[in-house]
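User: Assemble these into one structure.

Assistant: Restating your components, then the assembled model:
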Amino acid sequence: MSGGYNEIHPEPTTFWSKYIFSFDHKVIAKQFLWYGIFFLGVGGLMALLIRWTLAYPGVPFPVIGNLLFPGSNGIVPPDTYAMLFTLHGTIMIFYAITPILIGAFGNYCIPLMIGARDMAFPLLNMLSFWFAFLSGVVLLISFVTPLGAAAGGWTSYPTLSTLIGSPGAGQTLWCVAIFLFGISSTMGAVNYVTTVITLRAPGMGYFDMPLTIWGLWLTAILNAIFVPVLGAGVILLILDRIMGTTFFLAGASATSGSGDPVLFQHVFWIFGHPEVYILILPAWGIVSDLLSFFSRKPAFGAKATALSMTSISILSTLVYGHHMFTTQMSPLLTQSFMTLTMTISIPSAIFFANWLGTIWRGSIRFDSPMLFSLGVVFVFGLGGLTGLHLGTTTTDLYLHDTYFVVGHFHYTMAASVLLGGFAGTYFWFPKMFGRMMNETLAKIHFWGTMIPLNGIFFGMLLVGYGGMHRRIYNPFIYESLQRLIPVNNIITISAILMGAFQLVFVYNFILSLRKGAKAEQNPWQVGTLEWTIPSPPPHHNYDEIPVVKCGPHEFGNPNLKTGRDFQYQTEELVQA
Amino acid sequence: MNLLTMGVSANWLDYFRPPENISTTAHLIDDLFNYTTLMVTFYFILVCIGLFGFSYFYSSKRNKTPYYTYGNKKKHLIVTAFIGAAVFLSIDLNITRIANNDLVNTFWKFPNAKNEKVLKVEVMAQQWMWSFRYAGQDGEFGTSDDIVTNNDLRVPVNTKVLFHLTAKDVIHSFFVPNVRLKVDTIPGRITRVWWEVTKPGKYDIACAEMCGTHHYLMKAALTVYTEEDFNKWLASSTLLAANTHDPQDSNLAWGWKWED
């Protein structure tokens, strides 16, 4: 496979070329990691402000409330509230999860795990980060525009997101930021797809790739196809906002135009539904690998898992209409989208069975990456299964736009991806930085995340079923929702707890960077290619491009004579 | 300040219930929800048994030597395929079938005034208010005897009510938790929904689609009358509407010709 550009590049010598405008995938991965962690903090703080408002309406936000909202005695005002949930969604999806899971792990793992010296297009890789950076800057600038940041929800449906509902530069800057982000993501995606196809080490077939790479590769394919669709959508929205076109404006009392606001919803969800799989696929891949690594047992049905992920990726492009049942599409479309949505159960059930099959009769080591991976199985179970209530049209007529939806997609997209991201961080930290993270603090962090996390998102499912709808500043002006105040209190207290326990992670991360024990080459005793080279790897990764002779999950082979319980991928498979 | 303001609800079961069912069709949605929840709970318990059970029995302390298998044996493949098929057949196919039947036989079966008694109401949503229009005595919309109310919908029990909805400015969503129905109101389009309510009383109507800063205040009252009370209200309102009709009032000029 190893054709193309796989030569050794000279190591950069200046500070700028080494750490800022670096072509090295490992440095770019770290840049994305820091970028993602920064925005994760910003988005998380926004979540706390939102939760505080929902549980204690009219009560000043503690400690920093007066600093943030001096005009209202520390109480979050309604217009700011709308900006907060809009930007919370936008930031978490595009500026936290995407950079960490795809930008950081994608960049770090793909070349190392397939035995390449760098990405196929190092320059494109660097540009991908700097476009993401520019996009983040534009988004942050939108906060200080005269009318504030975008406030139409992360979905920014017209006509609310046109000048009818959102005057001011905030919404326009939001569109620009998303467009720039789209450029960055597309560049990254093209690069990942090409790298996986052309730079796999000799001997590595597609099914010899670790499942992490499968997840990242499928994500990149979906990204390359569907992010441009969103780009087109926001360009049309920008034209509607500043050039006076009417793509999304229909003739109605207060609006005129020959367009259609629902058109945007189609464009948005053609991108938006694959997007949720774009976010979760890397986490699925990581978890599928880690469950095998820490059970010391081959991944059960690895080929079926890879093919299930592939078929889910294909199906994800055919089901977007289930986000739009309440717009009253034609009955035929409604029925088709409902039925197609349901078929996603089959591949999902298969890889769940494979995950459990992997730990079945294993010899499980409960190190922190494993704990987080098992956590993903639990929360994704809840998230995936509650999707059934929403994919069914009639129950969706009640549950659509309630907190049930919010609970469901946070379980799938936030909880699973966050836990998967932490699993990956604890797992590859030694390789990335050459030091170990503190295991005790990691375990405290796990339980401190896992327990409140379920308090938050299960609570959301409950209040949603109770009838509480989304994006409302004060739910309790509805008398029928007042009975849900205690549940909202519990959700908010859980959120504060979970937020507090993330400080343990930050502390552990920074402490380990400076003072962590030196990591060995292969601290987890795993056979994939990145563990055959020193931690951290040299600039060119591999002195000699490895030749792959077996799969990534060779554990527990009873005929092994090496004294190890695993095989490196560079070793000839020992017959059992 | 007490962080946990407990004691608002007398009954803790209220946290696990949707609002009271007041319509002839809401039980279809509740039943399907309960069926889905039951099946989902069953499968989630299986996942948990696997997750916690295997974690306990096969921890490296208890099980030193793992079982060397790729899971590609015929036996394993059959089990995996069986699980996939079981989930699809027991949940997905069933709920799709039930939902489809309910849509075709109930929710999409809009009442026809030619065959049965139907109350027609036109709904106009705008930032941040609901307006409702009744045809009045002549049965025609957009005429001088139309009754128009703001944030105040009144309907009789045991009568089918058919709504045609649209929006003036941005997309809103007409949400009545007690009848479990929700439909978007979209500028430039007319969407439809119908219901038949059975319990007199006062209930909430909410806007469920983000529609701007005061989205949360876009709330209307739903009053369900007995047949007798409704007719009384309709008669007095018709009189009031006729007396106060002002062709210059542009707020009232939004009615459109009803088309079935």
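The domain at 27-532 of chain A is CATH 1.20.210.10 (Cytochrome C Oxidase; Chain A).
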